[in-house]
Structure formats: structure tokens, C-alpha cells
Specification:
The chain is mostly helical. Pfam families: SSF.
């Protein structure tokens, strides 16, 4: 395929089999947020929360995999989520959904970049803006300029480094410290981590699964991979990716338990710095640093590429006919502008990753049912269907004075689900009534 062809930039040169498809999906979803949220989840919600966080991504990928084959069968010639929305929605609904996707894309990129900023600043003694500049420039070259083919080339290396770190480093520590001393230390100094009857943890797990599914079902990079994985293997690829992804937060949780079993700690994020200090082997320190960089850069590059494609193909391309060369030029410029925005905003922000993860939680929960409706419906849908997500999110946020933030996210999902069911029943009854009158 010609490298000047914009399809090459979006999809790469070949279809992915199950093995490489899993690698590509994992390189998208093993993120800086995974690394940073694991310690925060473990400390706030205990071991059950850590297990729940691992279920978040696993269930989300597996459930999306169930519908992925339907997506490939119904939309065989599409390349992006925006292509599907353009076919299934009227202009009003399409504009709303594309605007929402752009907002959530920037949010997702900001979360990734924020995680990168924290980790880079903790591991390397350099100013955050200097580290972020180098990191974002690398992501710009890979995701913004190189496109999908460059992401494919690096994904295998990234996943090798990630799994080498999460397997070798815990084994090294357990060989050094032993299993029972770790358990006894946790029980003595941090017994709350072993407490499994915390009601709030149940709400967290349920909410995390809803947010995870909402993120996956509207993730631009995930949809691009769903279209380039071989159709007969796409469902199994997503299911296996979910199962494998679940092991990574669990491995990170085990690492953190090894660090804290000996006593107190300064802050949640200082745990990762203490991990670096405890690693005696230079080789393992290098492996841990490469693990962090691989996870951060692969996810950010994939999201940057998908967001750039969304803007050029599904926004600019809708209002103006662009040649492939023009699309590539616009993609480079837009990727550069987004990278600059991330550099400035991350350098000024003081929020924490898990706060940012739940910041748009109501929208992620409310979007699940409308998106499933759009995917599975056989006809073009009214603007009201995508707007249900707005009503669901608004309804959940309106309940915040009464409920806590976790329950309000569940309410958002429930409102959206009920409205979609009511709309489906109304459409079915109206269609039957119309047919009866005509006959």
C-alpha cells in the first residue's frame, strides 16, 4: 500500500491476526493511568479494590469483543468510529456525538499525559515540563507522524518490556523477602488492605466496570483496531486481551504490597519511587524505567493518532473534500497542536489521575446503552438516541447532592438504559401502528 495513501496512515499495511491483535490492544490499554491508579486503588479500597480495578478493563474489553464481530459484519468498509456514526445518525446527532468524542479524546489524552508527567518527574530529577516535552515529542513522531504502521512496529517491543517488568520484578522481590513476611507486615501495618467487607469498595468496582466499558465502547483507537483485526478472529482477540490485561493491575498491586509491608510511606505516588530505591539490580531498574516509558508512550501515541484521525477524517473531511496529501499535512499539524496543548496543560495542572478517571464518569456510564443501540440498530436513528447520553449524565450529576459520586455514576447509567428501552418500545409500537393503518 502507498505510504502517501491516508488509509495507510489510519490502518497500516495489513490485517492483524489474533496474536498481534492482542499485542496492539494491550499496548493501547496498558497506560500510565494503570500504573498510577493501581497504588491509589489498593490504598483507598484495599485488595478487593485492586481486584476490582483489574476487572474493570478485563470486563470492558471482553464485552466489547462480543459486539466486535457484529461491528465488522455490519460495517465492513469502515475504518473509524466516526464512519459508523456518520452512517447511523442524522446530522444533529452526528455533530453531538463527534463533539462529545472530541471532548473525551482530549480528556483521555490529558489523563495519559498527566500520568506520564507524574512518573517522569518521580523517576528522573528533571523539571516536569522538560520531561513532558521529550515524552510528547516522541509520541508526536510515533502516533502523529508515523501513523498506525509505526504503532504496529513498536507495540511488540512495548508489550515485551511491560510483561518482562510485571513478571520478573515481583518474582525478584518475593525471592528476596518471602511470601509470609509480606503478609504479616501488611496485616500488622496496613490491615485495612485485607478488609473485604467495605461497602464502598463494591460501589467502586461496579462504577469502575461501567466507566471502563464506556471508555472502551467509544475509544477511537480501539475501534480502529477492531476494523483491522481479521473478522473471524476479532471476538476472541478482544476476549483474550481482556483476560491478559487483568493480570497487569494485579501484578502492580503485588509489587506495591511488597513495598509497604515494612511500615509507613509518605504519599501514594512515592510508593513507585520507593520501588525504584528498593531494586538493587541496575538491570531491573532499567527494566522498570523502560516498562513505565513503554506503557506511557504506546497508549498516548495510539490515542493521539486516533484523535487526529477523528478530526481530519470525520470532522474536516465532512465539510471539505481533502486529497490524501492534504489529510496527512492536516494530521501532522493537528497532532502537533494537541501535543503542545498537553505540554502546557499538564505542566499547570494539580489534579490526580484517579480523580481525572472519574471526572467524566457520568458521561462514560451514560453513553454505554445509546452506543449499543447505535451499533445494533439496522436503521438510521433520530438525534434523540445519542442525546440520551446527555440526559443520563445530567440526571446522575443532579443526584450528587443526595448521593455520593460513585452512586451518581450508576444512576447515570440507569437513566440512560431506561430511556433507551422506552424509546425502543415507543418505536416498535409506532411502527406496528403505522403498518396496521397502511394495511
Amino acid at each position: 500500500m502507498n505510504k502517501e495513501n491516508y488509509q495507510y496512515y489510519i490502518s497500516g499495511a495489513f490485517k492483524l491476526g489474533a496474536g498481534f491483535g492482542i499485542v496492539s490492544l494491550l499496548s493501547r490499554w496498558v497506560t500510565g493511568n494503570t500504573i498510577l491508579s493501581s497504588p491509589e486503588t489498593l490504598i483507598k479500597y484495599g485488595l478487593t479494590g485492586g481486584i476490582g480495578y483489574s476487572l474493570m478493563g478485563a470486563i470492558a474489553l471482553m464485552l466489547f469483543g462480543i459486539t466486535a464481530k457484529k461491528i465488522r459484519e455490519r460495517y465492513p468498509d469502515h475504518q473509524t468510529l466516526g464512519d459508523v456514526l456518520q452512517e447511523k445518525l442524522h446530522p444533529g446527532g452526528y455533530i453531538y456525538m463527534i463533539s462529545l468524542l472530541l471532548l473525551l479524546s482530549i480528556h483521555s489524552l490529558f489523563v495519559q499525559a498527566m500520568g506520564a508527567g507524574i512518573l517522569i518527574h518521580m523517576i528522573f530529577p528533571i523539571p516536569i515540563y522538560a520531561g513532558m516535552f521529550l515524552f510528547l515529542f516522541f509520541c508526536f513522531l510515533i502516533g502523529g507522524v508515523g501513523g498506525m504502521q509505526s504503532l504496529h512496529k513498536l507495540s511488540g517491543v512495548n508489550i515485551t518490556l511491560i510483561f518482562s517488568a510485571v513478571i520478573i520484578i515481583p518474582v525478584y522481590f518475593f525471592m528476596q523477602e518471602g511470601v509470609y513476611p509480606v503478609y504479616d507486615g501488611i496485616k500488622l501495618f496496613h490491615p485495612y488492605i485485607l478488609y473485604v467487607k467495605n461497602t464502598e469498595t463494591i460501589y467502586f468496582v461496579l462504577t469502575a466496570v461501567l466507566i471502563g466499558l464506556g471508555q472502551v465502547i467509544i475509544d477511537r483507537a480501539t475501534w480502529q483496531r477492531a476494523f483491522i483485526i481479521q473478522k473471524e478472529k476479532v471476538r476472541m482477540t478482544f476476549i483474550l486481551s481482556g483476560l491478559i490485561w487483568a493480570t497487569i493491575p494485579l501484578a502492580l498491586s503485588s509489587l506495591l504490597m511488597i513495598i509497604i509491608f515494612g511500615g509507613s510511606y509518605d504519599t501514594i505516588y512515592s510508593l513507585l519511587f520507593e520501588l525504584v530505591e528498593r531494586i538493587q539490580s541496575t538491570l531491573l531498574i532499567v527494566l522498570f524505567v523502560l516498562f513505565c516509558f513503554s506503557a506511557l508512550s504506546s497508549a498516548t501515541s495510539a490515542e493521539l493518532h486516533a484523535t487526529t484521525t477523528l478530526i481530519v477524517k470525520n470532522m474536516l473531511g465532512r465539510f471539505r473534500h481533502l486529497k490524501d496529501k492534504e489529510k496527512l499535512q492536516y494530521s501532522y499539524w493537528i497532532a502537533g497542536i494537541i501535543s503542545l496543548f498537553l505540554l502546557i496543560s499538564v505542566s499547570l495542572s494539580e489534579r490526580q489521575p484517579i480523580e481525572l478517571l472519574f471526572y467524566f464518569g457520568n458521561i462514560y456510564a451514560a453513553i454505554i446503552t445509546p452506543m449499543l443501540y447505535i451499533i445494533l440498530s439496522k436503521k438510521r436513528l433520530a438525534t434523540f438516541v445519542p442525546l440520551i447520553s446527555l440526559l443520563g449524565a445530567a440526571g446522575g450529576l443532579a443526584m450528587l447532592p443526595i448521593l455520593n459520586s460513585l452512586l451518581s455514576i450508576v444512576v447515570s447509567f440507569a437513566i440512560s438504559f431506561v430511556l433507551c428501552v422506552l424509546y425502543f418500545l415507543f418505536e416498535s409500537i409506532f411502527s406496528k401502528y403505522k403498518v396496521t393503518n397502511l394495511s
